[in-house]
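YM 10:42: Rhomboid family protein sequence, as discussed on the call
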Amino acid sequence: MANRSQPRPGARSRSRSASRSPDTGASASGPSASNDTSSPIFELLTIFGLVFFIQAITDLVGLMTGLFVLTLPLVENPWTIVTSVYAHGGLWHLLSNSLALIVFGWPVARATSRARFHTFVLVTGSIAGISQVLLSGFAAAAPFISGEPVGVLGASGAIFALLGYLITGNRLSAGFASIIDVPQWVTIVVFVGLAIVVTLTTAAPGVALIAHFTGFLLGLLAGRARVLQVRGNSSTRRSVG
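YM 10:58: structure's back
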C-alpha cells in the first residue's frame, strides 16, 4: 500500500432520516445509493490499470518519469501532481494499493457521492505527494542531513486519507465525540500522534512515509469535519459505517 519514493531523475424515507442523530445521519440505502457508491471504486481500479499500462508503454521510450513521477521543481512537470496519484511503481505496488482501496475506500464511497469521493482521492493524494517531495527536498538541501531529493508516485497517500476518514467519520466516533468534549488542541495532538504511529508501521526502504502521514492526518481531520457527508433532496445524510 506504500507510495514509492524514487531518487529524483535529472433518501430513503423522510420520517426515518429525521429520527436519526443530526451528527451522524442515516446510512445510505436503496438502489440509488448502490449505484452511486459501488462505481467509484471500480472506476478508480480501472484508472489504476489503464495508467499502469500507459506507464509500461511510456517507460519503453523513456517518458514515464516525466509523465507520472512527481519531483521538484513542481513547475517543471505540473501534471504529475495529478498523474502521480494514479501511477504505481510496480505490479505488487498496484495490487496492494488496489486491495487497500477496496477495503478502506468501499465504506467511505457508500457514504458519499461519486464526485466527492473522486475529488477527495485526488486532493488528498496530491497534497500527500507534494508534502513528500517538498519535505524530502528540504531535508536533502540541509547541510546536516544526508540524502537526495526523491520522486514519488502512488495512491497510498489518498488511501491513508480514506483510512483516516473511516476512523473518525463513522457513527461510533461521532457519538463518542459528542459525549466527550475535549479542547481542539487535544484533538489535534491525538490525531498527529495516531498518524505518527500508523505511519511508522509502514516504514520500509523506498516507502514515502511523509505522504502516508500527511494523507492519514488529512483523512482524520476530514472525517471529523464530515467533509464527504451528503445532504440529498430528502434531507437524508449519509455517514460512514
